[in-house]
Design a protein that fits this description.
By secondary structure, the protein is mainly β. Helices cover 2% and strands 56% of the residues. It is built from one helix and 42 strands. The strands form four sheets. The chain has a 24-stranded antiparallel beta barrel. Strands 1, 3, 4, 7, 8, 9, 10, 13, 14 and 15 form a ten-stranded mixed β-sheet that branches. One of its GO terms (biological process) is carbohydrate catabolic process. InterPro entries: Carb-bd_dom_fam9 (IPR010502), DUF5916 (IPR045670).
Length: 740
């Protein structure tokens, strides 16, 4: 099995090698020397401070979307400098019609493409692989994260210490960034060379993107286009420390049904997070009795009639230092599997071409373990203590890299899951990427009937992908091989015991008018059991398009065959997605869903089903944002169009942002499923569901100095369609970050 993966990797490498080679990364503007600040700078959105005199000026911006590296339609001027403590960026964003600037008050990390904003991509290691992404809108509100070129993703989960200020002016708006050098990770060299790319989002009749460097259409990277800043000298060696203790308390009143009295439970927690940077390129994080409370419920997903486990993103701060280092082709690390950690310690850093992260902790259990299979996944309660360790060591070779990853969960009382193996990415040319990973797993389950029987088994997982992108077309080949006993209990691998071959190709068009980008494509996906038996397929043509008012849409027509109760069932269905940003008051509308055949996995038959989701962002005035959303799914069975089930989710989120530090948020979330028990082969309730309501006041001085006060009111819907209030709760959290 491993041999097939290796042969597939070699075949893809041969294809990539046959492509005409362009060894160098795409061109970028000439390097520029970064001068030191000549005087102090106050971060107030005013660019008239004496310290900006003599700063490096970048004023040549390119329209990279929808235009192809055209001169930007409006002027943008950036000023860059630094001193012994901070890196400064000031930006003047001219606008011929300032009244059209979209400048709402929003929560942190909600600075998105519907509104005017500026972003800095800062590659302080100058490896042209990943970068800090720091955003600000015209109200001075921040959004921050990591942009990772290895998989082309923006992750806004990580948070960083930095200051921003912005102001609207008669000629547009302007903003200032003050980034502590202790926030940055840079090598121990003198002088230093960093990379920077500045992006301006300009939503008007179209969503325009202006960048401080040209971006080639068909390029397979973004951070590789950063402009180099040279001559950065005499930087501190860090030794920065942050200690953030917290206190949290809750009062919960609960009952199981309407006739039962409420019981009251109060709980309090004390804990702390600590971060120490022994050098500017490394960090050590520790946590004791960490607070991993969620102050916002996960956006709901339809859970009825699902084959595999659903994925929810990580939001907890301790896991987010160097988060890009834990990304891999096979999701070996999914930190939400640590459900109740009592302590944790982590070290992350980079030394020359080597990057590393290692994390260890103790998990007191709770939640569920995913038990994957070839046709569906099951769950088992994780009602045991365990110690967890995971890590990765990566070696860069230019824009390519090789790495080794491992995870280990040792279960108290016996049992383990250990997974390890190499992965690599080779950027053969500016248009070709070859990515592969091989993992070996060793599992010994605890002896806990009926879910675990103390069995031991070993297996493997392998994947290889070749991506080829050109201005006018793109190609992708992928091969997966997952052994039937492969398990990654610290990751998210819901399907095993299969082999998959996938091929996709697309043709790209760049029209003018209502649409400015069209991609027509086709995908073929074949699955086999590891023993060779047919496991189904998914064949589909599709079209994706972009246009005015940030219009983007996608339509696919699927011919899909999947296993159901040891038989292959075929379903034909259409999926669709449509989104656009009409006005400042109605900045976003989204419609998506599917229609056609839908398999009833519970009873092993094919019916006609529909899923439709409608969501919007409504902004009555700049301080208030309303986000209504509704999802409805149903499945009809022949004969007589009998309705098997109808699932409905309704959600309304309202956020009133007072200023860049404080907000009030209210969420109401309703979920219900109605079934016809006579159409099921096993007992089911004719109706179930629930309501979740919450109100939260939050104050954030920075991302670790916070005050939260919240109230929750939840309930269930029983079979007689009666609402039963089951939970009332109060929540309080105070955290303060000391820095030295």
């Amino acid at each position: 099995m491993a041999l097939r993966a290796i042969l597939a990797l070699a075949a893809a490498a041969a294809i990539a090698a046959a492509v005409p080679c362009r060894a160098e990364a795409p061109s970028a503007p000439a390097p520029q020397a970064l001068p030191r600040a000549s005087a102090s700078i106050s971060v107030d959105g005013n660019l008239e401070d004496p310290g900006w005199s003599g700063a490096l000026v970048l004023d040549h911006f390119y329209e990279t979307s929808p235009g192809d590296n055209l001169p930007a339609k409006v002027n943008t001027t950036a000023y860059l400098t630094y001193d012994d403590q901070y890196f400064y960026v000031g930006i003047k964003a001219d606008d011929p019609e300032p009244s059209k600037i979209r400048a709402p008050y929003v929560e942190r990390d909600q600075v998105i493409g519907t509104d005017d904003n500026l972003a800095i991509f800062l590659d302080t290691r100058n490896d042209k692989r990943s970068a800090l992404e720091l955003r600000v809108n015209p109200r001075g509100i921040q959004a921050d994260g990591i942009y990772d070129d290895a998989n082309g993703t923006e992750d806004f989960s990580p948070d960083f210490f930095y200051d921003t200020a912005a102001r609207l002016t008669s000629s547009g708006w302007q903003a200032e960034f003050r980034i502590p050098l202790t926030t940055l990770r840079y090598p121990k060299t003198d002088p230093q060379t960093w990379g920077i790319l500045i992006w301006r989002n300009y939503p008007r009749d179209s969503r325009y993107a202006f960048h401080s460097a040209p971006l080639e259409r068909g390029s397979n990277c973004l951070i590789c286009h950063t402009q180099e800043l040279t001559g950065i000298t005499r930087l501190p060696s860090s030794h920065h420390m942050v200690l953030a203790p917290y206190a949290a308390g809750s009062n919960l009143r609960h009952r199981d049904d309407r006739s039962s009295p409420f019981s009251t439970k109060s709980d309090s927690n004390l804990g702390a997070d600590a971060k120490w940077n022994p050098t500017a390129g490394s960090s050590i994080d520790a946590t004791v009795e960490p607070d991993f409370s969620q102050v916002e419920a996960d956006v709901p997903q339809v859970t009825v009639n699902q084959r595999f486990a659903l994925f929810y993103p990580e939001k907890r701060p301790f896991f987010l230092e160097g988060a890009d280092l834990l990304n891999s082709p096979i999701q070996l690390v999914y930190t939400r599997t640590l459900t109740d950690p009592q302590w944790g310690v982590r070290t992350t850093g980079k030394q020359g071409p080597f990057s590393y992260t290692v994390l260890g902790g103790e998990d007191h259990g709770g939640g569920l373990v995913v038990l994957p299979g070839p046709a569906f996944s099951r769950f088992a309660p994780q009602d045991f203590r365990s110690t967890v360790a995971l890590g990765r060591l990566r070696r860069d070779f230019g824009l390519s890299f090789g790495s080794f990853m491992f995870t280990d969960r040792e279960i108290s009382g016996g049992g383990h899951n250990r997974v390890f193996g190499p992965d690599a990415q080779w950027r053969a040319t500016g248009t070709d990427i070859l990515t592969g990973q091989y993992l070996y797993s060793s599992t010994e389950d605890p002896t806990r009937q009926p879910f675990f029987a103390g069995q031991s088994f070993d297996s493997h997982a392998a994947t290889v992908t070749w991506d080829h992108q050109q201005r006018r077309y793109d190609l992708r080949l992928r091969y997966n091989d997952y052994g039937e006993d492969f398990r990654a209990d610290d990751g998210f691998v819901p399907q095993v015991g299969f082999r998959e071959g996938n091929v996709g190709a697309g043709w790209r068009l760049y029209p003018t008018g209502l649409l400015n980008f069209i991609r027509v494509y086709g995908v073929g996906d074949r699955f086999y059991l590891t023993g060779g038996d047919d496991l189904g397929h998914d064949y589909f043509p599709g079209i994706f398009f972009l246009g005015r008012h940030n219009l983007n849409g996608q339509v696919e027509l699927h011919v899909n065959k999947v296993p159901v109760r040891a038989e292959l069932q075929t379903q034909k269905f259409l999926t669709y997605f449509l989104q656009f940003d009409p006005t400042r008051r109605l900045p976003r509308i989204t419609l998506q869903g599917r229609v056609g055949d839908l398999i009833d996995f519970d009873n092993g038959q094919v019916g006609k089903g529909t899923n439709v989701s409608l969501a919007a962002t409504v902004r009555p005035f700049v301080h208030l944002t309303l986000s209504p959303a509704v999802t409805r799914e149903w499945l009809n069975l022949d004969p007589g169009d009998s309705r098997l089930y109808t699932a409905l989710i309704g959600r309304l989120k309202a956020v009133y942002v007072v200023d860049s530090r404080s907000f009030i948020r209210a969420i109401g979330q309703f979920i219900t499923t109605k079934r016809d028990p006579g159409l099921y082969s096993f007992p089911v309730p004719n109706r179930d569901g629930g309501f979740l309501g919450s109100v939260l006041y939050g104050y954030r001085l920075n991302w670790q100095t916070v005050f939260f006060l919240g109230y929750g009111d939840n309930g269930l819907i029983n079979e007689s369609n009666t609402f039963i209030r089951t939970d009332r709760s109060l929540f309080l959290k105070v955290s303060y970050a000391w820095q030295r």
